[in-house]
Design a protein that fits this description.
The protein is mostly helical. It folds into two domains: 65 residues; 68 residues, no CATH class. It is built from five helices and no strands.
């Protein structure tokens, strides 16, 4: 049994346990009674669905691997470089998050990820997606959910 199959099973079990724990949460005393359970329930659902999808994907990959003659294992050099650059980019993102604010650090992170995986040819698309995504998430968290994200030195974003 591969590590991915074990992890998919554990992810599904974690999601089910999280769903049970969400169900056992007490209702809110003020406002809508079930509101504190909404986000945890969504998270539990996503964990279960992700675990099941990963399990199905691994079963298909296992069947495909049996059919093909595996001549070489391992990962390609390009994939290894992309993963290394992603880890460095994530470290930069983590360190810059509080200093330059959520929006700017997220835009830089996403643009660099588009460069790492898509190259320069998709850069225009990546810039637009990064800016729109960062601003929409900032608006949702700040204005709709009331969760304050780190702001830049400009103060408004």
């Amino acid at each position: 049994m591969s590590l991915s199959v074990i992890l998919s099973f554990l992810l599904t079990v974690l999601g089910i346990a999280y769903a049970v724990a969400t169900y056992l949460l007490s209702n809110a005393a003020l406002g809508r009674a079930h509101e504190p359970k909404i986000f945890p329930a969504i998270l539990a659902f996503c964990l279960v669905v992700s675990g099941i999808c990963l399990f199905i994907k691994e079963l298909k990959a296992h069947r495909l691997a049996k059919k093909e003659d595996s001549t070489g294992g391992g990962i390609s050099k390009q994939y290894a470089i992309q993963m290394l650059l992603t880890m460095v980019n994530a470290l930069f993102y983590t360190l810059s998050f509080a200093k330059i604010g959520y929006v700017f650090s997220t835009v830089i992170f996403l643009i660099l990820q588009f460069l790492i995986f898509g190259g320069v040819k998709n850069l225009k698309y990546g810039v637009v997606v990064a800016i729109v995504f960062a601003l929409i998430i900032f608006y949702i968290f700040n204005n709709l959910l009331g969760i304050i994200l780190p702001r830049s030195a400009l103060g408004f974003i």
